[in-house]
């Protein structure tokens, strides 16, 4: 097990699903947590569940597309936590529709949360990491950003954007001892995928060599590895967590 005692991880979209599983694993490894989500009720439950005497947890009901609210978070945590060591850009949304039925709002919502939100959080929190001359940034992309998917043009474009963003920022921040990587999950059982029609779910499952859907913990394990010292020589990389669905 990793030991992150004394370190702090910021995780966006951590009230449920993959983000919550990531937060849980960090809490088990004694890492201080900054949890950001728009869902206050679930965020409060997560804080209760993950709290223990060895760590500090700060939780913020903040929309990651709201720059002024993110500034408040930055100022608050700078005074209350010794360092910001890990940022996990996990918050994401889907607004699925075939191209001709996809509204401008569907497009903008997905781009705003998945891509602009990732950009804003990275910009705000990387500033602290640059001063510290250390940090790990992990972005949650998706295999859909690599292979595309009918009905998800907005989502696929946003996740491909995250992979390209990851490589660019990795190049920018490498000289400051900051590693920037992405994890691209395949089909993971969460509320996001619970919304999909059964026939699509079954079609996907038949194509997964490991013959099962992933759990949020499967993704969380990779995030912890990328945040650890064992991954010090990895940057700009995207690791797929998809049971072999996409082999590049
Ligand atoms: N579940 C999958 O199969 C799968 C596959 C590939 C990639 N992903 C990616 O993993 C990430 C997490 O997915 P999940 O399945 O856990 O989804 P989820 O819907 O269960 O959880 C997403 C969380 O993000 C929060 N959120 C949404 N918009 C926000 C905003 N503007 N500001 C702050 N928080 C916001 C939600 O309230 C929610 O708690 C997403 O980026 C998603 O695209 C998921």
Structural write-up:
There is one protein chain. With about 250 residues, the protein is of the alpha/beta class. The protein has one domain: NAD(P)-binding Rossmann-like Domain (Rossmann fold, 3-Layer(aba) Sandwich), CATH 3.40.50. The protein contains 9 helices and 7 strands; from the N terminus they run E-H-E-H-E-H-E-H-E-H-H-E-H-H-H-E. It has helices spanning about 15-30, 40-50, 65-80, 105-130, 145, 155-175, 190-195, 200-205, 215-225; strands spanning about 10, 30-35, 55-60, 85-90, 135-140, 180-185, 240. The chain has a 7-stranded parallel beta sheet, with helices on both faces. It is globular and about 50 Å long. The two termini are about 30 Å apart. The mean pLDDT is about 95. Nicotinamide-adenine-dinucleotide (NAD) binds near residues 17, 91 and 188. Nicotinamide-adenine-dinucleotide binds near residues 90, 117, 142, 187 and 193.
């Amino acid at each position: 097990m990793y030991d992150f005692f004394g370190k702090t991880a910021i995780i966006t979209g951590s009230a449920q699903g993959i983000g919550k599983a990531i937060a849980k694993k960090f809490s088990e490894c004694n890492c201080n947590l900054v949890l950001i989500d728009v869902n206050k009720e679930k965020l409060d439950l997560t804080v209760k569940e993950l709290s223990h005497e060895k760590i500090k947890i700060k939780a913020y009901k903040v929309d990651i597309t709201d720059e002024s609210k993110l500034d408040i978070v930055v100022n608050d945590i700078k005074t209350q936590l010794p360092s910001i060591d890990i940022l996990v850009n996990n918050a994401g949304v889907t607004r699925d529709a075939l191209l001709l039925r996809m509204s401008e709002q569907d497009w903008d919502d997905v781009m705003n949360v998945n891509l602009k939100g990732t950009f804003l959080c990275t910009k705000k929190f990387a500033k602290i990491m640059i001063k510290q001359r250390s940090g790990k940034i992990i972005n949650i992309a998706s295999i859909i950003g690599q292979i595309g998917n009918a009905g998800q043009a907005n989502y696929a474009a946003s996740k491909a954007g995250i992979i390209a963003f990851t490589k660019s920022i990795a190049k920018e921040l490498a000289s400051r001892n900051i590693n920037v990587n992405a994890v691209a999950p395949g089909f993971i059982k969460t509320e996001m995928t619970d919304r999909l029609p059964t026939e699509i779910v079954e079609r996907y499952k038949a194509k997964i060599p490991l013959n099962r859907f992933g759990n949020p913990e499967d993704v969380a394990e990779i995030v912890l590895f990328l945040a650890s010292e064992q991954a010090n020589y990895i940057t700009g990389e995207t690791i797929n967590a998809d049971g072999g669905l996409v082999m590049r």
